[in-house]
């Protein structure tokens, strides 16, 4: 039995006989370290789908996407094979003469891991030192003999899959400790010895921290031309890059879930920067004659090795980007044009174990076409994309190695990813088809240059020379070809530039989740394709190349269920038969290690102090404004103060990358609601200083968290020319998550996605849930102080807030509730904002005396810089559901059923009653349902509902708690609602094709998404306003509101889109007014519609709870009881707290005394 103390010499394996040269009589076999099957000696590692059924079944990719860990995923061999290889290679590698050198390296590694572990412990507030037992375990793992054993495992088992280090010249003494540590971890993770992998996993995080904090790992520009000084610097940078790259591989395939995300989203982004610092010029060997004719062959070999290692490392960095695209459905982060390095040299050159062997190989390479031309990778890609390959180029490509052809198939997947996200016209998909056909033809007809033939190792001691998983390149080609077939079938269905496809491609349906650590959705796709029988049949296309046709011999999935032919040919798929399981969500977590979507927190386009703004603040000269901006820059720094000096920022109209200076969904002219400048404070002290400065200059300021308050004005100020205060760009930390108290404390830039991912990364999601609104990219603080809602039992966000820290208009600081009581453990010498809050700050809202929190919601009285929010304790069970009602007239009875169930808490969460068009708009644009501009009729609405397997009204809810509790609740819910004729009950598994139901299933358990934003695309250049009146939960009120709002919508020539959101005792009726922002008439009609609806609602006693900038004054005036007593009170408080009126003047109709609302009347 293998154990931690087994040494290579003790492995109980039979002696390995050297493989003899092949002869017809003996029929010897080589040992293939992938599947354990003996292969004929004349068989190379080159896959050929015309011969190998396993290639056509995508067996390697199926296993790759279905297993975890390096050993199971890559070509590393079975347990027995790994033991044999290490035994053979280990005898070569363990050298007692190196004991002193290795001991020094071991000591350095352990000391560095100890420092990194302590740093990580302090970072997680767990500063308990490094236990002696852990230190002993680390010394045992990296002891000299063990370190050499792990390195032997690296060479034997991992190196073939990632040949970026030159084994013949590798020396422990000359290698940096970081690289040795990472190589040892890779070897240990593949070791056949029991306990090695488990021990290695202990050191992944501290080694990652060590590697990525190394000063050598920098993105400072570096020149790569030959010189003694450049040689040393390049070697140092290369070693750091390789160590970082290998750490990412380890964490991606062996790390915990949080580490996988961190590696993919954050660490890989770091090494892309380092890649670019090196690959800032074309990199190749240049004329190979310099190696052959130089004065010193040893020095020439050394220079060759360094440059080839660099080329291969850069190659594998790019390959990892594509691997994330293929297997994690992650958008690519690198462009093909960045591959400014040559192809890898032939393996005989790189694997030569002596100067003389290398010299012979390099001379053969210099005589070949490939060696003479040495095209860069991006140039070879251009050859593949060409309308037709020239004879010279085709001869060149046919001489490429298997590794280089493996490299070239990957960019095709990147192109297919882009085509899937943004479908291409047929003419452009034809380019991808030509490239695929050319690649396949080259693979089948390739031949090695004379003297450089690829050879399968014949001795186990040479196992490090074998070709790794790159030999499965044909499977990667097959997968790309099948994906393209799906895309081409969609084009055969129907495509136009305006309306897109009538249905969805199979790929888009199966790969619906983006940037997933789990490869299960890719595995489903691979297995689906693998279940097809692929037959190679000659077919002459334009280039005369053979094509691969596919037929299904047994249309069955692995579980025996019949596979409908529509699953193979998406042209037969309509929206109603989609198989999308979850939302397409391009917005990942947005806080450093959580995710890379930093575009949401970018600096706006514009100039620095001295630039002229598009709009000056009111009553402010340009000279005064310039003085103000200069003073602001002194506070926050030049990078955090931007003058909106051109219309560049006004072109930002994307939720994912929101504008920081105007209303992206503008209803007035685009240039009206515009800031003069945008300032991003770095901390609370900056906010205080800015407020004092605004008072000094009497310049109005408009705070916003991120700019995603779409439908209500985004980041735009009510008073044009105000200075936008971007609270989210720098202040976006989760300050605390209190597990016992079930609350979090956050800064303004923390999104719902961030907070959710924070819990997931720290393994708290199984204990605590957040509540999220429809769109998870918004600020937790921003949404809460605007009194936004979500859909779990914690759906009333303001009700669930607890404790605030607020900067008042004069720059003073205030804490609410129990925050007013000092924490006796706090440092009294620290600044007030840095003092620890009272331990009951997030537990009890009210404190002592008057309760003031509410005046800071939807107000202009203070800036919330920190806030506590209660989190929902995992209820112990959860079931979402949908109930459909077939008739428009069912609304009345359904609402009457809802009221007692909601008040009685049988309906535990915040449920929604959605109109058919809201769901339909998520699943397709208007043109996909009706081509003419005429309004949709009731008959057409019924037809849409039938097509989507929905009702005219669709009720979404959930039950929470242990199964017995859920079953009791569901029994009452079903019995109540199914009394309505034609009502139907569904759970998510009943309708896997229902994108809305699948998304609500996530939302109702606090998992954020951005899928619901799709309904904005109902019209071209889609924008929206929300009209949001409050009403009783009664059938009469629901029907009355629906009739009034639908009638007015149709008068304005808009289809009605809306939903009823059921609170504890009231309903928010959210009417979604979707308009074309680039059509002046559409904007005019939308503006008329919302102004008319406000008056209609007020006449019936319905008031809005939240609104857009353009109609704030109108709504404020409708709350007119007792001669506008409410507005007058708000104005008195405003005058008391903000006498100069500099904070958000005009917000929700509250104006300072010196400003006349009529002067800022919104143009219609």
TrEMBL record:
Any one GO biological process: DNA-templated transcription
Gene Ontology MF, one: FAD binding
Keywords of this entry: FAD, Flavoprotein, Nucleus, Oxidoreductase
GO cellular component, one term: mitochondrion
Residue span of region Disordered: 1-48
All copies of domain FAD-binding PCMH-type, residue ranges: 671-874
InterPro entries: Cytok_DH_C_sf, FAD-bd_oxidored_4_C, FAD-bd_PCMH, FAD-bd_PCMH-like_sf, FAD-bd_PCMH_sub1, FAD-bd_PCMH_sub2, FAD-linked_Oxase-like_C, Oxid_FAD_bind_N
Pfam families: FAD-oxidase_C, FAD_binding_4, Fungal_trans
CC cofactor: FAD
Protein name: FAD-binding PCMH-type domain-containing protein
């Amino acid at each position: 039995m293998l154990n931690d103390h087994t040494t290579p010499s003790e492995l109980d394996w039979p002696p390995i006989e050297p493989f003899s040269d092949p002869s017809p009589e003996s029929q010897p076999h080589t040992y293939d370290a992938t599947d354990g099957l003996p292969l004929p000696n004349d068989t190379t590692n080159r896959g050929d789908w015309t011969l190998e059924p396993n290639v056509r079944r995508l067996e390697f990719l199926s296993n790759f996407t279905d297993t975890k860990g390096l050993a199971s995923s890559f070509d590393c061999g079975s347990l027995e094979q790994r033991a044999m290889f290490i035994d053979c290679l280990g005898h070569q590698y363990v050298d007692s003469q190196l004991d002193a050198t290795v001991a020094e390296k071991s000591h350095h590694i352990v000391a560095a891991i100890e420092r990194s572990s302590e740093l990580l412990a302090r970072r997680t507030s767990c500063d308990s030192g490094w236990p002696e037992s852990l230190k002993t375990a680390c010394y045992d793992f990296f002891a000299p003999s063990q370190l050499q054993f792990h390195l032997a495992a690296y060479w034997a088992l991992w190196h073939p899959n990632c040949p970026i280090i030159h084994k013949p010249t590798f020396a422990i003494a000359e290698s940096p400790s970081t690289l040795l540590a990472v190589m040892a971890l890779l070897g240990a993770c593949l070791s056949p010895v029991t306990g090695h992998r488990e021990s290695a996993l202990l050191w992944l995080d501290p080694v990652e921290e060590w590697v990525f904090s190394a000063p050598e790992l920098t993105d400072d520009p570096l020149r790569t031309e030959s010189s003694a000084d450049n040689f040393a610097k390049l070697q140092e940078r290369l070693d750091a890059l390789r160590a970082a790259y290998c750490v990412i591989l380890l964490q991606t395939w062996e790390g915990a879930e949080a580490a996988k995300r961190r590696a993919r989203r954050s660490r890989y982004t770091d090494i892309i920067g380092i890649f670019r610092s090196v690959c800032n010029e074309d990199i190749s060997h240049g004329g190979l004659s310099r190696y052959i004719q130089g004065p010193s062959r040893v020095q020439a070999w050394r220079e060759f090795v360094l440059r080839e290692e660099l080329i291969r490392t850069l190659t594998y960095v790019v390959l990892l980007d594509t691997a994330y695209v293929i297997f994690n459905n992650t958008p690519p982060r690198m462009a093909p044009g960045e591959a400014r390095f040559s192809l890898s040299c032939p393996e005989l050159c790189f694997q030569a174990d002596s100067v003389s062997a290398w010299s012979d190989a390099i001379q053969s390479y210099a005589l070949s076409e490939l060696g003479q031309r040495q095209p860069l990778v991006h140039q070879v890609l251009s050859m593949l994309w060409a309308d037709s390959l020239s004879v010279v180029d085709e001869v060149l490509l046919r001489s490429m190695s298997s590794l280089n052809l493996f490299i070239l198939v990957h960019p095709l997947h990147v192109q297919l990813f882009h085509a899937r996200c943004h479908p291409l016209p047929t003419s452009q998909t034809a380019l991808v088809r030509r490239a695929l056909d050319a690649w396949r033809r080259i693979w089948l007809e390739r031949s090695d240059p004379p003297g450089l033939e690829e050879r399968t190792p014949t001795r186990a001691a040479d196992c490090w020379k074998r070709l790794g998983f790159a030999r499965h390149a044909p499977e990667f080609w097959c997968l790309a070809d099948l994906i393209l077939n799906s895309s081409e079938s969609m084009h055969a269905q129907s495509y136009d530039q305006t309306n897109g496809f009538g249905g969805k491609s199979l790929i888009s349906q199966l790969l619906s989740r983006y940037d997933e650590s789990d490869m299960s959705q890719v595995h489903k796709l691979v297995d689906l394709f693998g279940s097809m029988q692929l037959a190679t049949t000659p077919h002459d296309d334009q280039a005369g190349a053979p094509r691969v046709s596919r037929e299904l011999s047994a249309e069955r999935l692995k579980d025996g269920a019949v596979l409908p032919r529509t699953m193979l040919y998406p042209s037969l798929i309509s929206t109603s038969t989609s198989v999308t399981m979850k939302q397409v969500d391009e917005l990942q977590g947005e806080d450093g290690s959580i995710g890379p979507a930093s575009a949401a927190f970018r600096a706006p386009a514009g100039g620095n102090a001295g630039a002229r703004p598009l709009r000056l603040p009111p009553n402010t000269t340009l000279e005064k404004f310039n003085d103000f901006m200069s003073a602001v820059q002194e506070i926050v720094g030049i990078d955090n103060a931007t003058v909106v000096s051109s219309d560049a920022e006004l072109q930002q109209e994307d939720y994912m990358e929101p504008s920081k200076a105007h209303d992206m969904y503008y209803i007035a002219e685009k240039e009206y609601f515009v800031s003069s400048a945008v300032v991003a404070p770095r901390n609370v002290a900056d906010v205080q200083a800015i407020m004092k400065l605004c008072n000094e200059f009497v310049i109005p300021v408009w705070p916003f968290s991120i700019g995603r308050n779409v439908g209500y004005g985004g980041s735009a100020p009510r008073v044009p020319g105000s200075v936008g205060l971007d609270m989210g760009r720098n202040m976006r930390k989760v300050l605390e998550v209190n597990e016992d108290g079930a609350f979090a404390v956050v800064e303004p830039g923390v999104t719902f996605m961030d907070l959710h991912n924070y819990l997931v990364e720290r393994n708290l999601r199984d204990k605590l849930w957040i509540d999220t609104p429809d769109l998870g990219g918004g600020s937790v603080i921003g949404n809460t102080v605007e009194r936004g809602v979500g859909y779990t039992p914690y759906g009333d966000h303001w009700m669930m807030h607890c404790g605030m820290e607020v900067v008042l208009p004069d720059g003073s600081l205030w804490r609410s509730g129990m925050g007013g009581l000092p924490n006796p453990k706090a440092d009294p010498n620290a600044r007030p904002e840095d003092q620890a809050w009272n331990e009951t700050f997030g537990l009890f809202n009210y404190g002592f005396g008057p309760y003031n929190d509410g005046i800071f919601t939807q107000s202009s009285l203070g800036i919330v810089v920190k806030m506590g929010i209660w989190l929902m304790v995992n209820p112990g069970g959860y079931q979402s559901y949908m109930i459909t009602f077939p008739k428009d007239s069912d609304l009345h009875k359904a609402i009457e059923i809802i009221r007692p169930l909601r008040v009685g808490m049988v309906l535990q969460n915040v449920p929604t009653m959605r109109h058919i068009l809201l769901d339909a708009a998520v699943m397709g644009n208007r043109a996909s349902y009706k081509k003419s501009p005429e309004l949709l009729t009731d008959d057409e609405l019924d037809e849409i509902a039938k097509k989507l397997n929905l009702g005219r009204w669709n009720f979404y809810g959930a039950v929470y708690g242990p199964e017995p509790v859920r079953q009791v609740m569901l029994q009452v819910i079903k019995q109540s609602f199914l009394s309505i004729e034609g009502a139907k009950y569904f759970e998510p598994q009943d309708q896997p094709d229902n994108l809305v139901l699948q998304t609500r299933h996530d939302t109702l358990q606090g998992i954020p998404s951005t899928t619901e934003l799709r309904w904005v695309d109902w019209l071209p250049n889609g924008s929206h306003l929300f009209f949001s009146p409050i009403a009783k939960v009664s059938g009469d009120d629901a029907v009355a509101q629906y009739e009034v709002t639908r009638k007015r919508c149709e008068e304005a020539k808009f289809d009605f889109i809306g939903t009823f959101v059921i609170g504890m005792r009231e309903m928010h009726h959210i009417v979604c007014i979707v308009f074309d922002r680039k059509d002046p008439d559409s904007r005019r009609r939308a503006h008329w519609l919302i102004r008319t609806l406000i008056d209609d609602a007020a006449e019936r006693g319905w008031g809005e709870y939240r609104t857009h900038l353009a109609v704030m004054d109108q709504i404020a005036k409708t709350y007119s009881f007792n001669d506008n007593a409410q507005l007058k009170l708000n104005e008195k408080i405003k005058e008391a707290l903000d006498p100069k009126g500099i904070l958000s003047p005009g917000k929700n109709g509250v104006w300072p005394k010196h400003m006349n609302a009529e002067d800022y009347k919104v143009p219609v």
